[in-house]
Amino acid sequence: MQSFIVEHHLDEVVDVYCGGPDVFNGKVKACADNVLTLEQDGKYTHIVIDKIIALWRT
After folding, report:
1. What's the burial of 52, exposed, middle or buried (CB within 10 Å: 0-12/13-18/19+)?
2. Which of 33, 39, 42, 53 has the fewest Cβ atoms nearer than 10 Å?
3. CA-CA-CA-CA torsion for 44, 46, 30, 36, nearest 10 degrees?
């Protein structure tokens, strides 16, 4: 999934669903070492790729 995110979503704004109420939003800044990094309003969110259930462009 890491290579898919880098090839198709780098520098795009996405929503990331991790189950339950956990939905994260931001611009994909990096995806390395099994961690996705999103940026929104100057703040960064780091998500373990194994926890991602779905990801879509917003």
Report:
1. middle
2. 42
3. -150
- By the 8 A CB rule, do 38 and 25 touch? yes
Angstrom distance (rounded) from CA 19 to CA 40: 20
Give me the mean pLDDT over the 26-53 stretch. 97
pLDDT for 5-37, tens place per residue?
A: 999 999 999 999 999 999 999 999 999 999 999
- Backbone phi and psi for residue 36, each to the nearest 5 degrees, phi listed first: -95, 130
The β-bridge partners of 48 are 35
Which structural domains are found in the chain, ordered by start? 2-57 (2.30.30.100)
